[in-house]
Amino acid sequence: MGESTMLAGCHVFGGSGAEVRRDQDILVTDGRIAGIGPSGSAAVPDGAAVVDLAGSYVMAGCSTCTHTSRSRCPGRSVTGSGLWRRMSSRST
C-alpha cells in the first residue's frame, strides 16, 4: 500500500439522488479512493495522514474539473488536485 490519507467524519453526497451518507470516512491511497465507510469503522493505515472533516460535505466526481466544461478527467488524482485541502472548509 502506498501513501494514504483518511478524510474523517464527512458527509458524502453522491449526486445520484440517493440520501447523503452522513459521518463517513474516506480512505485515499495513492491518489485514488480506496474505500468509504461509517466513521470509525476502518483502521487508519500506519503512516496515513488524517484530515478531520467533521461536519463538512464531500461530493463525488472529478475533483480537478469542477470549474470547467470537461466531463472526463483521465489520470487525475484526488490528492494531487489539492481537493482534500479545500474540503476542510465548512459548508453552512
User: In the CATH hierarchy, what is the architecture at level 2?
Assistant: Roll
The class by helix and strand makeup works out as mainly beta
Q: How many structural units, i.e. domains?
A: 1
The CATH topology, please? Urease, subunit C, domain 1
Low-confidence stretches: 64-92
Query: For the record, what CATH class applies?
Result: Mainly Beta
Mean pLDDT: 75
Radius of gyration: 13 Å
**Total of helices:** 1
Helix-strand pattern = EEEEEH
CATH superfamily: Urease, subunit C, domain 1
Taken as a percent bin, the fraction of beta residues is 35-45%
State the helicity in percent bands.
under 10%
Number of strands: 5
Major sheet: size, sense and barrel closure? 5 strands, mixed
Shape: globular
User: Distance N terminus to C terminus?
Assistant: 36 Å
Write the layout of secondary structure elements.
Elements: E1 4-13, E2 21-29, E3 32-38, E4 49-52, E5 57-59, H1 83-86
Parallel strand pairs: 1-4, 1-5
Antiparallel strand pairs: 1-2, 2-3
Account of the 3D structure:
- This protein is mainly beta and 92 residues long.
- It has a single domain (4-86), classed as Urease, subunit C, domain 1, CATH 2.30.40.10.
- The protein has one helix and five strands; from the N terminus they run E-E-E-E-E-H.
- It has one helix at 83-86; strands spanning 4-13, 21-29, 32-38, 49-52, 57-59.
- Strands 1, 2, 3, 4 and 5 form a five-stranded mixed sheet that branches.
- A hairpin with a 2-residue loop joins strand 2 (21-29) and strand 3.
- The termini are far apart.
